[in-house]
Amino acid sequence: MIQKELLGLKKKALALRREGRLDDAEEELKKGSILEHQLEEIENGSMPKAMHGTVGTGSK
Fold first, then answer.
1. Would you state the pLDDT for residue 11?
2. What is the torsion angle, in degrees rounded to the nearest 10, for the CA atoms of residue 23, residue 25, residue 29 and residue 35?
3. Side-chain half-sphere of 51: how many Cα atoms within 13 Å?
4. How far is CA 30 from CA 11, 25, 36, 50, in A?
5. Is 28 exposed, middle or buried (0-12, 13-18, 19+ CB in 10 A)?
6. Which of 29, 30, 40, 60 has the smallest number of Cβ neighbours within 10 A?
7. What is the residue-wise DSSP string for 14-60?
8. Which residues contact 29 (CB under 8 A, 6 or more apart)?
9. Is the pTM of this model over 0.85?
10. pLDDT tens digit string along 4-57?
């Protein structure tokens, strides 16, 4: 689940860069970085299951 969201954020960031919206693209990449960190913690078993969640993905 998180992996799909991460891929979606990266695709969105790439599309934003192509449009010249570099600040927005950078923001999406920051969200992706947070998700990657969470995914690593989950895979390593260091994050309690109750904390599994995603970064806010509300639309603008």
1. 96
2. 110
3. 10
4. 13, 9, 10, 23
5. buried
6. 60
7. HHHHHTT-HHHHHHHHHHHHHHHHHHHHHHHT-S-GGG---------
8. 9, 10, 13
9. no
10. 988 999 999 999 999 999 999 999 999 999 999 988 988 888 755 555 555 555
